[in-house]
Write a structure and sequence with these properties.
elongated, 5-stranded mixed beta sheet, 298 residues, D-Maltodextrin-Binding Protein, domain 2, 9 helices, Arc Repressor Mutant, subunit A, 15 strands, alpha/beta, 40% helix, 3 domains, LysR_HTH_N, single chain
């Protein structure tokens, strides 16, 4: 029975890592031992579970379904360990975190050393990306997301709202003039953020209780928020940019705030998202509490 459970856990790990070497590293065993356990499992069940080639590993249909049961065993074990760790308030092991890329670079990575110094027994694994992950399948303990709608079935703790400013460089304004009203933006080259999942070409504003949203256009669309900032500083056009990206660009004159009587009203919520579990591991709880106390989104 114990050998059978071990083989299921090994297969579930191979399915998650999509690689024998990474699965071995995660489990703390040799690559040959991983291969041996998979081979024993296939021989015992009488069916092929894994398709191997020199570069990657793919599971057969039977392998995918069998690995899902193994994943349930792993999750049950993690819940049990989290329950016991909760009694000791122990913060240790690996914490796998996903972070929205631009926000992570601007706000989070510089805080991680402080967090890890508080919990030296903790091993941090941080992934920066802008897509929407599957937290359970991808093995994330927590995802720091800038998203209007966090995934259903997960716990989403709101940490704040990203604010925005309308800015341009002095060189752009000297060449093209400064807009006075949201409708003037239709006559300007506006730099917009655009990705597979989102496009921000609707810029909302408010003045004295009056709201107005304008659809902007321009010759420059970028799928990376820091690149929007750099393009704006270089004089390409006007940007509606998240304030967390700004450091001293306004103070030192690299950028000018425009239409100060019209307030940008777009707000993007920042969430700490994690799988719903009966027992929340102390490492996740402390990490989310740390973020709530330390990140700056205004």
């Amino acid at each position: 029975m114990l050998d059978n459970l071990q083989q299921m856990v090994v297969l579930a790990t191979v399915a998650h890592e999509q690689h024998f070497t990474r699965a071995a590293e995660y489990l703390g065993i040799s690559k040959s031992q991983v291969s041996k356990q998979i081979r024993y499992l296939e021989e015992r069940l009488g069916v092929q579970l894994v398709q191997r080639n020199t570069r990657s590993v793919a599971l057969t249909e039977a392998g995918e379904q069998y690995a899902a049961f193994g994943r349930q065993i792993v999750e049950t074990m993690q819940d049990a360990e989290a329950m016991v760790a909760g009694f000791r308030n122990e913060v240790s092991g690996r914490l796998k975190v996903g972070v929205a890329q631009s926000f992570g670079n601007a706000q989070i990575t510089k805080l991680l050393s402080t967090f890890q110094a508080q919990f030296p027994a903790l091993e941090l694994e941080v992934h920066l990306f802008d897509h929407r992950p599957n937290l359970v399948e991808d093995g994330f303990d927590c995802w720091l997301a800038i998203h209007e709608a966090p995934p259903e079935g997960m716990v989403a703790r709101k940490l704040g709202d990203c604010q925005f400013k309308l800015v341009a460089s002095p060189s752009y304004l000297e060449a093209h003039g400064s807009p006075k009203h949201p409708s003037d933006l239709r006559e300007h080259n506006c730099i917009t953020y655009q990705s597979v999942q989102r496009t921000y070409d609707q810029w909302p504003f408010q003045r004295d209780g009056s709201e107005q949203s304008v659809t902007v256009r321009g010759s420059y669309r970028i799928n990376n928020a820091p690149a929007v900032l750099e393009a704006t500083k270089s004089g390409v056009g006007i940007a509606y940019i998240a304030t967390y990206l700004l450091d001293s660009e306004i103070e030192n004159g690299d950028l000018k705030v425009l239409m100060k009587d019209w307030k940008p009203t777009m707000k993007l919520p920042v969430y700490a998202v994690y799988p719903r579990r009966e027992y929340l591991a102390p490492k996740v709880r402390h990490f989310v509490d740390f973020l709530s106390e330390n990140i700056r989104v205004v």
